[in-house]
Structures are given as structure tokens and as C-alpha cells.
Amino acid sequence: MKKTVSVVIATYNGEKYLKEQLDSILSQTYPVSEIIIQDDRSTDSTPAICHRYEAKFPIIHFYENENNIGFNLNFKSAAMKASCDLVALSDQDDIWFPNKIEEEVTQIGNYDLCFSDLTRGPELESAYRVSYEEGFTNHLFYCAMGHTMLLKKDFIRHNDYWQDYLNYDWSLLIHADLEHGATKVNKPLNWHREHDCSVSRTIQLKKEKNKSYHELSKIAPYLHGFKKYREAEKTEKFQSFYQNFYNATTSKEFKLEHKISHLLLSENSMALFKLCLICMWHRKEIGPTNKSKGIMGIIRGFFFPAIYYYHNNNFK
Residue 259 phi/psi, 5° resolution? Predict the structure, then answer.
């Protein structure tokens, strides 16, 4: 029997791009049975746009929060309203490729979650591919974006799988790994539009074109990364995440992940040294596989904790 699909969209001040995203969802090659839109107290014309689409398309159901609750809780609350077999999560400003749902429905099988790569950029013609990797060990540190995900309804309705201290997509991916697993469509299935024209972004782009900045950015993680790691280690988010991860990985199946979590929670120099060694030995499972080869791959593997936490903002 053909699986039914709900699409869940959490909106907030998305008037500029929302219509194009809704049109791309309505144009999917695999029929979408319902679209749940939940707005988090937008101050622009987003609600008006949603009401117009709701009046035109019976599969669209629009809800408005009484108070602003933030994107994590907004997605969770909206997802709980989905009634179909499978649930796809959507940002308000992406554009889905026509076969996104079809590809993921075909791929998901008995897994709890399916994700894909994406394209990112202000224009589709110049957009670049962003790839996410499969593997539980990798997901200790990296997460696919929520708007690439298709999930089983029975899985997504577990309240415990939505951890408040994590972005919803990372929490769902980790719990899928712990249950029936996550799988991937190895191609981009949506265009994630970058539309930040702020001064800070302009300055950043200029910096990246500057050779001296580019060279400094390569060595800065090695110079300052371990300090950033120690700072992250002291945060409540860090401790909560890896403590829960440690508690959930006691079976032999998750021996490596359990060991890594233990070392991350051990605030001493010897534990950090052992963590660096494990990251070096298991660099293909942990870090980007395209950066794990040769001497530089070995060096990067050893310094992975420094490199990762230098660039990571999840535990601030």
C-alpha cells in the first residue's frame, strides 16, 4: 500500500520566499497528502499568505501560535499534528526539487529517518553541494539539516526524541541512529537559499578573498581549538548532550560511541589525549571522509577535537 506523506513547515516572517517553497511542495512527483503550516507569531504578511493557500488547497492546514515559542518547539508542536505515515520537515525559504519526496519515500524502507544532500547559495546556478555522511559515530559531531529529512510518523511522535538542549534535527537524527537507524539519498534534493545581504556577510566574504585571512583560518583551529574545546566542555548543553549519549550507548553495538562520549565527559588532559588518538584512528568514521587520507589526514584526525570545537557554535 502506498505510504501517505505529511509536510510540516514552521514559519516566522517568511513572506519573501514562502510562496515559492509552497509551490515546490505542491508540485512534487509523489503526492503530498497534507501540509501542516504553523506560524510562530510573524509580524509580516506570512499569515496572510498561508491563509490564501489554505483557502485554495484543501490539503493545507494553517495554525498560529498564541505566543512566540522558538523554532525548536514550533517544529515539534507542528510535527505532532501530522497524521500521515511519513513526515517531511520543511524550512520556509527553501525550494524542493520535484522528486524530493519520491526519492526519500523509496529510500527510507524500515529506517526511522531518511536525509539527503542539499544545494546552498543565493542563486541556484551558482549554488554548491553540501554533503552529509551516514554513520552513528559521525553524528556525534555532525547533523544533516532538518529540511532534508523524511521520518516515520510513529518515530517523530516520541516526545523524548525532541531534546530541548539540541536543535531538533540533531536530536531526531541521534535518536534514529539509536533505534531503527537513518539512511541517505546520496544527491541534493533541495535548494537551501542564502539571502543574507547584511554588512557582516559582505565583510566575511571580503575576508575570505584575502590570502592572509585564508591562510590564518587554516592554522587558527590548531592554535586556539583546544581552548574552544575546554570552553564548550564547561557548558550545560555539552554535558547534557554527551551524558545522555553516554547513557544511551551501553550496549556492545555502540562501543566506540560510548568510549568517545566517556572521554568527552572526562575533564582531564589524559582523556583529551586519548580522544585525539581515537579521532585519528577512526577519522574515516568521525570526520569528513574526503579529508582523512594521507599524512594531513592523520594530523587532522588527531587534532579533530580542536578543529571541530573551534568552528562549532552548538554548545554556546
Answer: -65, -45
Q: Cell for 77?
A: 508542536
How many angstroms separate the CA atoms of 243 and 235, rounded?
Answer: 12
* Residue 264 exposure: Cα atoms within 13 Å on the Cβ side: 28
Name the nearest CA neighbour of 178 among 157, 155, 154: 155
| pLDDT tens string 203-238 | 345 444 444 444 556 888 999 999 999 999 999 999
Separation between Cα atoms, residue 295 and residue 192, nearest integer Å: 34
Task: Give all domains of the chain, ordered by start, each with its CATH number.
Answer: 5-193 (3.90.550.10), 207-311 (no CATH)
Q: Is 46 left (phi over 0), alpha (psi -120 to 50) or beta?
A: alpha
List residues bridging with 182 in a β-sheet: 113
The SS3 of residue 97 is coil
Q: Of 67, 92, 120, 128, which Cα lies nearest the Cα of 10? A: 92
Name residue 239's amino acid: Q
Rounded distance between C-alpha atoms, residue 41 and residue 39, angstroms: 6
For the chain, the 3-state helix, strand and coil shares in percent, each to the nearest 5, are 50, 15, 30
